[in-house]
């Protein structure tokens, strides 16, 4: 994806992109759960989104369904209500739900309601409001997706070097810039390097050579996830246009439905000795668990400043949150878009680099905070929660509002759903609504709810939509009402 | 249910904007709103230049824009002209709009920097439709069609702040705000804690008449002096004079200008700057200066020398210390307007800072027992807003090459806040601007001022050099031709104002969320 994005964006400017492909990592996810950035990427690359979904056994994703210990909630990509940016809509909703024991925010989210009903459709161009309200990502088979992007890179004449051995011989200049990388069959030189390996092959272990700044060596505490495991089940599920997160003591089990089967990832905050207990819990949640799970111990920290000298190390930081809530691809794509905005001249300016790193920290902090919030009620150690996260939760619990977002990593809607789902309930009503009497407030909200119900009722089932517009047999002249 | 009592002290723009907003949204069954003001205490309000945000404020209150223009003698505003900033003899405009569109995902100004280096570009501001319209004294509402070049700008107003306050007073009183005439002689604090209050919170205001005004939440709009926030609660003030050394102003109204331009003028002087704000019925003028480098007599002389119409009233002299209260919400008192902080009106931010404070207050409105959660969150928001404006204004002084006075040499060499230093270093290095997610100003504004004042980076995105310069040049020429054609079709500013005088509604566009046109 990175090679495709860079090659496409830099093509008008005759900038060459080379790729060093490392041996496959057995722990790499077998499936991808993207956000709406997937459609954006397809537009940038000029790729046929439909074809990718079809070829990658893809299903749609309107958000994530959470099955908590006592509650269930949904975090969609789209806003609440039928129109984006409606002043005080969320506050009106919180107010009307106040005191209700089983308050369900999902009833005012068409994305949540459609996903829960197993329905999906992409609205027509004449209903941009509905398109926004049903903003979607996709679930894809990671290997197939990778192959498509690789073929795309070949079309753009990206030079590809696959190697069997991760031992790279690097040469730096006195300023610490990486000059060349010697491979078994070639020596590559480049002006700029993007390192997507989790192990930071191009930058880690080279401190004496690349003189990583003291600030850059600081690390970010990791999420309370210590182990992860993944497996694929043959069970097909065409009625779930969303990812699903199932809570167990000390972690989350993530389920991604593909057309070819169901992919599971388990994220546990327990120590290795307690993993058998975790396995037992998982087996009580779902039937399709392999006899023996292969657990991966996760690294404990990552570099705060990914851009050092002429090398952008994204692999390690994308691994930051263990791929639980955010996919690594999503994080890398966001970082590369920022990088392209600041595309460096030579020699690379220190301020440019610093700016990227500061912006990146904001992004990473938000990714981290959003992910960490998932562990608030699980008893895991969340002592590393940032002040920003604590403030965000306090302000929401008091006012039903959000502190300003620092980046595009998350949307306000996602935070509203997550915090409400976690059981936080705003204690103060919005004074802006104090002039609106309760019956008319309820009436307006109930109209929105009815509209959502009506629209969802008219939507096709996800499985039918896929079968009709995304058939697995090749049909080149497919037409549909996108 | 016990009614929550809100007391607003001060009846200038801040006081009446606050009272009007609270009256609009707060339920009279649950809240009482009392505004205390004294006719003996003058307001600072002279002519007031605004930002496009004010349109959203008026819209939120349900105010008809054309009625507003008639009632406040307002004219339209597309830009601010800055003669003499950067260097003597040069002038530039800071428009409410974009200059050019990005090409292949790279910002327009990188291409401009490239062509400029090749000697093939016109001044940057020429690529702004708002600037072209302003220069030709033309005005029309921006287009809603994103493909139309006329969608690339927003607009604000010049208004008579006194008339605006009067207009909002009627609005507020019609909605139940009680106005009490009187001067505060004592701010009484709670001596004992209760369910709702802590010791040291404000309990009431004692007026010169002896009347006692009790309240639960107090809004301090008393101006620089900060009767409640500072005199009573001793909140403390962060002094920014070392970055913004101007500390005095003299204002004078003059006769109306026959053809008021759709822009504010802020002309640099030897130790400060002079404003000119054209209204329908008069022109607002004033000089802001640094007393360490210019005495009152000199300032007065320069002001009267450089006004273009005859004065219609005496001089109004002001002293101020640029800065901000350590906390604009302290205990049960929220300071809004000049009592919260003062930043010179170089970029017309005064009403914006009032507006945003009101908006944030409504969002963080407390129950009768105030929690630190809403108070701290509000203060965080407002700190960011003030700091953003502060940095942008400091930049105007810092980026100058004037050699005609000690004042400007001081400004050139003064240290600036770290946040501004980082922003400027980023631009100097490669023409990049860090875009804020909260607070003013948009990158288009930074660009206009940087380039207008002569801070032209020699490095820019080198990808633009890969495109044939002739092709780029043609693209630029076409863009200029499109701007010219669009501006030629616009009516004059004067006739656009005249259209608002008719009682029949003129269709103005809804206040957009984007302030510099829908493409920004």
Low-confidence stretches of chain B are: none
Q: Give the biggest sheet of chain B.
A: 7 strands, mixed
Helix count, DSSP H or I runs of 4 or more residues of chain A: 16
Roughly how much helix do the residues of chain B carry, as a percent range?
A: 25-40%
Structural class of chain B: alpha+beta
- SS element count, helices of chain B: 15
Which oligomeric state applies? heterodimer
Strand order of the largest sheet of chain A: 5-4-14-15-16-13-17
Uncertain segments of chain A are 205-218, 475-482
CATH topology of the domain at 4-73 and 160-238 and 323-369 in chain B: FAD/NAD(P)-binding domain
Strand content of chain A: 15-25%
Number of β-strand runs of chain B? 22
Number of DSSP E strands of chain A: 20
Q: What is the C-alpha radius of gyration of chain B, as a whole number of Å?
A: 23 Å
Q: Radius of gyration of chain A over alpha carbons?
A: 23 Å
The helix fraction of chain A, in percent, is: 25-40%
How far the N terminus sits from the C terminus of chain B, by CA atoms, comes to: 47 Å
Strand order of the largest sheet of chain B: 6-5-15-16-17-14-18
Determine the mean pLDDT of chain B. 95
Instruction: Name the CATH superfamily assignment of the domain at 4-73 and 160-238 and 323-369 in chain B.
Output: FAD/NAD(P)-binding domain
Which terms summarize this structure?
heterodimer, A: 482 residues, three-stranded antiparallel sheet, 16 helices, 18% strand, disordered C terminus, B: 520 residues, alpha+beta, FAD/NAD(P)-binding domain, seven-stranded mixed sheet, globular
Would you give an account of this structure?
The complex is a heterodimer of chains A (482) and B (520). Chain A is of the alpha+beta class. Helix content of chain A is 35%, strand content 18%. Chain A is built from 16 helices and 20 strands. In chain A, the strands form six sheets. A seven-stranded mixed sheet of chain A has the order 5-4-14-15-16-13-17. Chain A has a three-stranded antiparallel sheet with strand order 2-6-3. Residues 205-218 and 475-482 of chain A have low confidence and may be disordered. A seven-stranded mixed sheet of chain B has the order 6-5-15-16-17-14-18. A six-stranded mixed sheet of chain B has the order 8-2-1-12-21-20. The radius of gyration of chain B is 23 Å and the shape is globular. The model of chain B has no long low-confidence stretch (mean pLDDT 95). Chain A binds chain B through residues 9-10, 12-15, 85, 340-346, 349-352, 354-355, 359, 391, 394-395, 397-399, 401, 403-407, 428, 430-432, 434-435, and chain B through 25-27, 30-31, 104-105, 362-367, 371, 373-374, 376-377, 380-381, 384, 422, 425-426, 428-430, 432, 434, 437-438, 459-463, 466-467, 513.
């Amino acid at each position: 994806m990175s090679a495709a994005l860079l090659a496409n964006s830099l093509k008008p400017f005759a900038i060459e992109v080379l790729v060093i492909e490392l041996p496959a990592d057995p722990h790499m996810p077998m499936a991808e759960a993207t956000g709406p950035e997937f459609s954006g990427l397809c537009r940038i690359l000029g790729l046929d989104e439909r074809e990718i979904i079809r070829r990658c056994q893809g299903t749609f994703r309107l958000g994530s369904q959470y099955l908590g210990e006592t509650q269930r909630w949904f975090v969609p990509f789209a806003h609440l209500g039928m129109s984006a940016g409606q002043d005080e809509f969320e506050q009106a909703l919180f107010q009307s739900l106040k005191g209700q024991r089983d308050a369900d925010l999902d009833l005012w989210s068409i994305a949540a309601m459609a996903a829960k009903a197993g329905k999906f459709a992409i609205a027509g161009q004449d209903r941009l409001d509905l398109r926004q309200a049903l903003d979607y990502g996709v679930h894809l088979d990671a290997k197939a997706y990778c192959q498509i992007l690789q073929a795309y890179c070949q079309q753009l004449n990206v030079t590809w070097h696959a190697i069997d051995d991760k031992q790279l011989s690097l040469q730096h200049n006195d300023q610490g810039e990486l000059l060349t990388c010697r491979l078994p069959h070639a020596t590559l030189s480049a002006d700029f390097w993007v390192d997507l390996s989790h192990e930071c092959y191009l930058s880690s272990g080279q401190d004496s050579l690349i003189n990583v700044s003291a600030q850059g060596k600081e690390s970010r505490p990791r999420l309370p996830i210590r182990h992860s495991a993944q497996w694929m089940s043959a069970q097909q599920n065409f009625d779930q246009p969303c990812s699903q997160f199932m809570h167990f003591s000390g972690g989350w089990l993530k389920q991604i439905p593909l057309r070819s089967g169901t992919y599971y990832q388990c994220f546990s905050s327990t120590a290795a000795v307690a993993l058998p207990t975790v396995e037992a819990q998982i087996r009580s949640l779902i039937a399709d668990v392999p006899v023996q799970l292969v657990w991966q111990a996760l690294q404990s920290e990552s570099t705060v400043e990914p851009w050092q000298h002429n090398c952008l190390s994204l692999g390690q930081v994308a691994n930051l949150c263990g791929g639980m809530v955010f996919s690594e691809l999503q994080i890398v794509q966001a970082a590369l878009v920022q990088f392209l905005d600041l595309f460096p001249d030579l020699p690379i300016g220190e301020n440019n680099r610093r700016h990227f790193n500061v912006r990146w920290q904001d992004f990473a902090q938000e990714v981290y905070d959003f992910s960490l919030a998932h562990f608030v009620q699980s008893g895991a150690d969340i002592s590393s929660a940032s002040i920003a996260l604590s403030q965000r939760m306090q302000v929401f619990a008091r006012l039903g509002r959000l502190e300003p977002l620092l980046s595009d990593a998350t949307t306000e809607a996602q935070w509203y759903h997550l915090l409400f789902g976690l059981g936080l309930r705003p204690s103060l009503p919005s004074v802006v609504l104090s002039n609106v009497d309760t019956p008319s407030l309820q009436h307006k909200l109930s109209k929105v709810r009815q509209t959502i119900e009506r629209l969802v009722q008219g939507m096709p089932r996800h499985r039918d939509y896929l079968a009709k517009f995304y058939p697995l047999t090749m049909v080149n002249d497919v037409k549909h009402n996108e | 249910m016990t009614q929550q009592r809100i007391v607003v002290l001060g009846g200038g723009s801040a006081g009446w904007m606050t009272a009007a907003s609270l009256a609009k949204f707060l339920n009279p069954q649950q809240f009482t709103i009392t505004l205390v003001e004294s006719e003996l205490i003058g307001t600072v309000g002279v002519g007031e230049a605004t930002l496009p945000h004010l349109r959203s404020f008026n819209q939120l209150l349900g105010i008809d824009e054309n009625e507003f223009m008639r009632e406040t003698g307002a004219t339209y505003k597309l830009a601010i002209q800055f003669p003499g900033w950067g260097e003597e003899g040069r002038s530039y405009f800071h428009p409410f709009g974009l200059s050019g569109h990005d090409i292949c995902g790279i910002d327009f100004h990188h291409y401009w920097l490239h062509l400029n280096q090749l000697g093939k570009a016109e001044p940057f501001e020429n690529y702004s439709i708002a600037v072209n319209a302003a220069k030709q004294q033309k005005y029309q509402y921006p287009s809603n069609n994103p493909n139309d070049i006329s969608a690339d700008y927003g607009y604000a107003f010049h208004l008579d702040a006194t008339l605006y306050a009067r207009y909002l007073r009627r609005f507020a009183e019609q909605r139940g705000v009680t106005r009490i005439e009187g001067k505060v002689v004592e701010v009484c604090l709670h001596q004992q804690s209760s369910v709702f209050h802590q010791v040291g919170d404000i309990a009431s205001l004692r007026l010169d008449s002896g009347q006692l005004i009790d309240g639960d939440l107090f809004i301090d709009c008393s101006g620089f002096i900060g009767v409640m926030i500072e005199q009573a609660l001793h909140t403390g003030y962060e002094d920014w004079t070392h970055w913004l050394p101007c500390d005095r102003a003299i204002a004078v109204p003059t006769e109306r200008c026959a053809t008021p331009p759709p822009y504010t003028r802020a002309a640099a002087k030897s130790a400060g700057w002079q404003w000119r704000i054209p209204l329908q019925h008069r022109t607002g003028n004033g000089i802001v200066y640094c007393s360490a480098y210019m005495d009152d007599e000199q300032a007065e002389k320069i002001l009267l020398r450089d006004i273009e119409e005859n004065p219609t009233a005496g001089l109004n002299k002001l002293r101020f210390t640029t800065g901000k209260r350590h906390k604009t919400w302290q205990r049960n008192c929220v300071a809004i307007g000049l009592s919260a902080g003062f930043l010179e009106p170089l970029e017309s931010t005064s009403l914006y800072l009032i507006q945003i404070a009101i908006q944030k207050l409504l969002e963080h409105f407390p129950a009768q027992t105030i929690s630190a959660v809403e108070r701290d969150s509000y203060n965080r928001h407002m700190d960011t807003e003030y700091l953003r404006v502060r940095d942008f204004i400091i930049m105007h002084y810092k980026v100058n090459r004037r050699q005609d006075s000690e004042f400007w040499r001081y400004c050139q060499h003064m240290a600036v806040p770290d946040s501004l230093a980082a922003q400027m270093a980023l631009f100097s290095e490669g023409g990049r601007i860090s875009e804020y997610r909260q607070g003013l100003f948009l990158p288009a504004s930074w660009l206009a001022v940087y380039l207008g004042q002569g801070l032209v980076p020699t490095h820019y995105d080198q990808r633009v050099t890969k495109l044939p310069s002739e092709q780029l040049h043609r693209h630029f020429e076409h863009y200029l031709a499109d701007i010219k054609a669009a501006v030629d079709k616009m009516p004059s500013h004067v006739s656009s104002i005249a259209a608002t005088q008719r009682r029949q509604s003129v269709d103005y566009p809804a206040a957009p969320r984007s302030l510099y046109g829908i493409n920004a």
